[in-house]
Write a structure and sequence with these properties.
402 residues; Elongation Factor Tu (Ef-tu), domain 3; five-stranded parallel beta sheet; binds flavin-adenine dinucleotide
Length: 402
Amino acid sequence: MIGPIFGSVVRMRVSTGKATQSDGRMFTVVVEGFGVGPQRRAERRLTVPFGQLQPLMQTIARKGGRIRMVSADEIPTTGSGAPAPEGGASADAPATRAPAASKAPVSHADVPVNLYKPKDPFIGTVTGNYSLLQDGAIGRVNHITFDLSGGNLHYVEGQSIGIIPDGEDANGKPHKLRLYSIASTRHGDNCEGTTVSLCVRQLQYEKDGVTINGVCSTFLCDIEPGAKVKITGPVGKEMLLPPEEDANIIMLATGTGIAPMRAYLRRMFEPAEREKNPEYQFRGKAWLFMGVPKTANLLYEDDFQRYLSKYPDHFRYTKAISREQQNPSGGRMYIQDRVTEHADEIFSLIEDPKTHVYMCGLRGMEPGIDEAMTTAAAAKGLDWSELRPQLKKADRWHVETY
Ligand SMILES: Cc1cc2nc3c(=O)[nH]c(=O)nc-3n(C[C@H](O)[C@H](O)[C@H](O)COP(=O)(O)OP(=O)(O)OC[C@H]3O[C@@H](n4cnc5c(N)ncnc54)[C@H](O)[C@@H]3O)c2cc1C
């Protein structure tokens, strides 16, 4: 059961350690692109007893069908429009097998890549550069926008661009490019389709008592409007949003890992964006988990609060503020603690083939999340080490850490 904030939609578990062959319920699978001739073009509803559910889903996946929904009927019925599962597959499929193997349709077609290469970069003009942090925050994080007019640099949500900072490295060679996740939608912050925005944290660390500033992140955080910047790309197909308006999107972000999520959330909920996208009127569930050290470090908070008040049934926002909140063991509250706290709901969502999970931020976040998912999966009788590759294969587990 999904939490109340997501409304009253009931999703039944289709593959948990608790479901057994003696489960008397009938399950309805809504599928597209499955069958022959005209059947293949139409959406079909196939109702099967639990024992045939797993083999049916495997058959659908093998034949390239797209599962739109799986639900359990409240009252067992005897009708079945389902084709007999192939290969004598039986109901004793491993309990760890989740419906992740059914390939969710993620369109990678028409995604632009490498329109501008390092040898011949696009020269963008900075139109804005402002701090995203509040007083008392740790570090420096800026939102920086570039005008792309006059070129052919376009992108979609979830991609990155390369920035080549001015100047030379220690060997007198031009600096190499650094990648940054795009924080704007394809229409740009002004919705005119001529800009791209980034969310950049200045890298700063101490070495032998000296403060070292990262080359490119400092270049970007210091840059003035009007400056010209060498831009490459776009690159990346790992973090693309599925085109389905009713997909569920779980987002796990730390720090500047919010950049692609900000683009997704704008595409989903920003009024001007929704006007621009008649073909994408998001009506699924979007759940953002955001990890920062202090409240003052929360990024794009006002926008997210706006989306929360306008779309409470579609957007959920859970924060882990490590230096201000405590986890149940009395330690700092990290994003993985929030994942553990909401494990049941997260896994109920993941069992729905329409659910995608996105993780972005510093590489160090991965082991913690992995551990939390392992514990959470085990509580549901699932094995995360088996489930994760299935989700990955089904294009439903998206990770970009750096
Ligand atoms: C796909 C992708 C997306 C990214 N998206 C973003 C984004 O949205 N926002 C963002 O801010 N960044 C993002 N990054 C990171 C970004 O590309 C740069 O790596 C980052 O800005 C640092 O670059 P720099 O030139 O400032 O640092 P550099 O001058 O290149 O210094 C980095 C080097 O400093 C050293 N170093 C770093 N920390 C320490 C330490 N504590 N002690 C000792 N040595 C250290 C390491 O050798 C490291 O390689 C992304 C990276 C990737 C791969």
